[in-house]
Design brief:
mainly alpha; 8 strands; globular; disordered C terminus
Length: 690
């Protein structure tokens, strides 16, 4: 089976020029049009042609799989590389975009119209150099919005000369896709009229043309034209639909009827996956009835050949997905017992996936687990939404959300985690273990975002529930979170005592993963309070990670032990540990850990007397601190050394030179690649700048 990616872009020269011209005048451009007309591809093409015009770049955010408007801001922030350390990701976005000249593309906004309108109005007000390019079936209705309707492709009269027919975009698109389906196909004097007639019959709709062209794998052009004409006349779509939507729907119904029974069922069942699915997942969830598990690969290959599925190679395996319009049609073909059975299998599969891929477990495949969850996030969202807002069991949705706590932290998605937890806690009120777990997880995410006021009542309820019901396995986590909360409220002595109590409980339960995380907090918060004990905890955590080969947790162990050793005066080993952690977290885009690493490397550069490099690293760290919506002053183990490093660099360089170096580093901060290497003398970065 051939594995294909997105096909080439054909035509639309006038629309691309019109969109570029509109964006030169207006700050908000919305591309509108019916499904299947090619809005997304046009937007991507426009964005590609404008990359050089925006100093701070172009970013595309795909929204089709996002079901909740409340998640719009955190989703955009994550796409921009920001990590929401605050409970208001919109404020984080505003700060980040305020001075930037960039183009932000939001693709497929029609199902989030109100949320996108509010987002656009606010972000354009706060970021005067920003341009927004939107695709939607409807306009947003925001002041200053420029709307560019995306028409169907121009179609020629079949009676025109062949060389004139060949110049029309609809014909060019058909010929391009036909050559993919039937190698050797080309537009000729003999077939030009048939192609023109076919394109006209399909109203020039790109998706309809592509579906028809795929049929050339099995039938010749003349037969295709007759077959399509017969089918389009026979299939009746709702009269309330506009003509082009009726044409597209009729074309999809025609394509559906040309599929085998097994292909039809697989099309319908795979439509449940917003992010697509790999072969093993398709076999596990979609098999049954007309879909034999042993035939899923062949059925998927048939749907790829018919342009229903897009097969893409991703991280060593094939993944199948659908265009949104095709997926929406497939969803309509699910009903009754089939839909209920599929939903149960879908939920069970994703519940097991979360349970098998807990990132906080001290195991060698932590990074692979993280990448898997990040890839499956739209599917996980759909599963959780089915439980918390649909017919699924709410307790399963709450369980899945709470089990993802380490993913929410590592991916910088605390706002999203809290969103789902709040909905789940509203639905699941029984005083059981699931609610107790969700309560401490919510509290921890709130504390990460600097929101102890929101954490306090949830944490209090958790503690009372755990002790009343005797949930011994949840108790260590409740105590640990209470210890972190104590530091947030200025009670370091109480915080350390609670962390020690939690550590003892984890040890008694044989909970290695809980022990590792407790050691981290004891080392971090004890770095200045009790450095000797903190060093013991940091060394033990690092040894545990190395013994069990846990790379993600190991980077945090290196960071925290480096900070402790810095406080103890072992600057060389501290720098080596933190430099190695910086390399790893840069590669996996863990900005929370990377930010702290760059901060410590700035201290190291200053200690070596390289104050210019220290200033540049402080500037880079400043940009990174902003990206995670935090600051070194929020963490007690960073603040004093940060102030000392800044003061020394200012004295050594002078205010003007310091500020110039700081600004240079700040420009590099969100692109971590130039920050490779340590701060030791003689260690140079590839860019030579930082």
């Amino acid at each position: 089976m051939a594995v294909v990616s997105e096909s080439t872009f054909v035509g639309r020269r006038h629309e691309v020029a019109a969109a570029r011209k509109a964006l030169a005048r207006a700050r908000l451009l919305t591309l509108t049009g019916t499904g299947g007309v090619g809005k997304s591809r046009l937007a991507l093409k426009v964005a590609a042609t404008l990359r050089g015009a925006f100093r701070d770049g172009v970013e595309v955010v795909q929204l089709s799989s996002l079901a909740a408007g409340e998640l719009l801001a955190p989703t955009v922030a994550a796409a921009l590389g920001l990590r929401d350390g605050d409970s208001d990701p919109m404020a984080l976005l505003e700060d980040h975009l305020a001075g930037r000249r960039m183009l932000l593309v939001l693709d497929n906004c029609e199902h989030l119209l109100e949320a996108c309108a509010r987002f656009a109005a606010r972000v354009l007000r706060e970021a005067p150099r920003l341009r927004l390019l939107i695709t939607s079936r409807q306009r947003l209705g925001v002041y200053g919005e420029h709307v560019l309707p995306v028409p169907s492709l121009p179609v020629p009269d079949p009676g025109l000369p062949p060389h004139v027919i060949a110049r029309h975009d609809a014909v060019r698109l058909f010929a391009d896709r036909a050559a993919d389906a039937s190698p050797g196909f080309r537009l000729t004097r003999e077939n030009a009229a048939d192609v023109a007639m076919l394109a006209r019959r399909l109203d020039g709709l790109p998706l309809a043309i592509e579906l028809a062209a795929a049929r050339l794998r099995t039938v010749p052009l003349d037969r295709l034209a007759r077959e399509l004409d017969e089918r389009l006349q026979a299939v009746t779509s709702p009269a309330t639909l506009p003509p082009r939507q009726r044409t597209l729907r009729a074309t999809m119904e025609w394509s559906y009827r040309l599929c085998s029974a097994g292909e039809q069922r697989l099309w319908a069942r795979l439509s449940m996956f917003p992010a697509g699915a790999g072969l093993e997942t398709a076999e596990a969830v979609c098999a049954g009835g007309e879909v034999d598990g042993c035939e899923v690969l062949d059925l998927a290959a048939g749907l790829v050949d018919k342009s229903i599925l897009i097969g893409e190679q991703a991280e060593g395996c094939v993944r199948y997905r659908m265009l949104d319009t095709i997926r929406a049609y497939g969803c309509e073909r699910l009903a009754g017992d089939e839909e209920r059975d599929l939903r149960e299998r879908y939920l069970g599969h994703h519940r097991d996936l979360v349970a098998r891929n807990r990132i906080h477990e001290t195991v060698p495949d932590q990074l692979e687990r993280y990448r898997l969850l990040r890839r499956e996030l739209p599917n996980l969202r759909a599963a959780i939404e089915t439980c918390l807002g649909g017919p699924g069991p709410p307790a399963v949705g709450l369980e899945m959300t709470a089990s993802l706590w380490s993913f929410w932290l590592l991916s910088g998605s605390a706002t999203e985690g809290r969103y789902w937890l709040e909905r789940g806690l509203e639905r699941v009120t029984a005083p059981d273990r699931g609610r107790a777990t969700a309560l401490w997880v919510y509290s921890m995410l709130a504390l990460r975002q600097g929101d102890p006021a929101a954490a306090a009542p949830r944490l209090e309820e958790c503690g009372a529930l755990v002790r009343r019901e005797g949930f011994a396995d949840v108790l260590p986590y409740a105590v640990r979170t209470s210890g972190v909360a104590a530091f947030s409220t200025g009670e370091p002595g109480r915080g350390l005592a609670l962390l020690e109590e939690s550590l003892a409980l984890h040890r008694a339960a044989g909970d290695l993963d809980g022990v590792a995380f407790n050691l981290y907090y004891l080392a971090a918060y004890g770095a200045s309070q009790s450095p000797g004990r903190a060093a013991e905890c940091g060394e033990e955590m690092l040894a545990l990670c190395e013994e069990h080969g846990a790379p993600v947790t190991r980077s945090y162990a290196q960071l925290v032990l480096g900070i402790v050793l810095w406080n103890l005066g072992d600057l060389q080993r501290a720098e080596e540990l933190v430099g190695e952690a910086a390399e790893f977290t840069r590669d996996i885009d863990d900005k929370w850990c990377l930010t702290q690493c760059v901060e410590v490397l700035a201290w190291a550069a200053g200690a070596h007397g390289d104050h210019g490099r220290a200033a540049r690293l402080l500037g880079a760290a400043h940009a990174l601190w902003q990206s995670v919506d935090a600051s070194p002053f929020r963490l007690s183990y960073h603040a004093p050394w940060h102030e000392r490093c800044v003061a020394r660099a200012r004295r050594a360089l002078g205010v003007r030179a310091y500020q110039a170096a700081f600004r240079e580093g700040a420009r590099l901060g969100l692109d971590p690649r130039p920050l490779a290497g340590s701060g030791r003398p003689g260690a140079h970065h590839a860019s030579g700048r930082v």
